[in-house]
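ugh ok so i messed up the first submission bc i forgot one of the chains. this is the corrected input, ALL of the components this time, i swear. 378 residues overall. if the numbers dont match what u have on ur side tell me asap before i send this to the collaborators (the ones from the other lab, u know who)
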Amino acid sequence: MPKTDHAIELTDYERQDFSVCLGCKICASVCTVNDLDLSTNPQEMLQKLFLGKDVAADDPLVRFCTGCYRCTGACPWEIRIPDVVRALRQVHATESPFEKAFKGSVAIWGRVYEPYVLMRAVPFLLKGGYIKHMMRWMEYMGIHLPHKVKRT
Amino acid sequence: MEYGYYPGCSLTGSAHKLDKGIKKVFAKQGHTLKEIPDWNCCGAFEYGDRKELAGFSKKNLEKARGHFSEIVAPCPACYKNLREADEKREFAVTHPLDLFDEAFFAAMKQDRDLKGQVFTPYYGCILLRPKETAIRNNTVMEETITRFGGDVAGEAVKDRCCGGNQIFINKDVTEKLSRLVLDKSRGTIVVFCPLCHMAMKTFSGERKVVYYTDLLLYIMGENSTL
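and heres the new structure output, hopefully the right one now
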């Protein structure tokens, strides 16, 4: 099965749902990714999904979608493009170390325990030049122990 | 009135200021926030599988069942996930911004005003979109600022994306998007979302970034909230 089909299964959509796209490209005109001087057209992605073609992991929309839902707000059919992008990220397994740490914490405690996420993401934070922002993040720090959610 | 309270992970950690702020504002108005027992993470935006994502919030709704009918969730991501998981509308899942109405302000004790101060009320994305889960009054922050004599700026960018979602993935994306908002606005940035707070705070330089609850507490007479 192509990865795109598997991605669609993860959303609330079916492939034929994307046939309603009118090709108006209003999604592209409001897309936050285009504020980054990248050229992206979500409508093309919907077309690929409808035709059963693959959407690459390095597609600018897949990489940089911020999940702002401006496209959904503008779309005549209110198609939830960010939901589709998240499913594509999942099938392409392109999670960042931070996202992996987030999910790791949820798997252990049932909640996001930020000190754990930070610890696990340290190499990424060092390499990515995040340390210079630490001073501004002091107000976010606090000491608390993790709460473990009971398994049900 | 007693509300079920879903703080979510951020409010127990990096957004502890919002947690304290909300609790204080509600307490001052005579309302009680009672935490959903043993709540779990809502999954935020990290899960590509819609069923898996909804599963987290469905568990939280189960834990609230029998205890509460109205649930308050301040974090926009938690609020959206809970609302979407409550398919049968069994609960009134409410964002606090929808509770700051005429009756709230009529009952509020005012100690200070905002005269001579400029604010940019910044909503970001999830409070306003998608429309099924958007807050009812999308000018509530502006109304608060003008009601107490402050000046409102930055209307054109109030619903733009700060890129906070990408801050720990590609922070250059967040920097560029946050700067777009900062450059087209003036004064203190007023936010409600913990992620918007972090994105704005990281790149705001000398500009102040505060939670809406800080603004309310300042008006109510609390010290050093602005």
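quick check: The two ends of chain B are 28 Å apart (CA to CA). that seems consistent at least. The CA atoms of residues 65 and 149 of chain B lie 42 Å apart.
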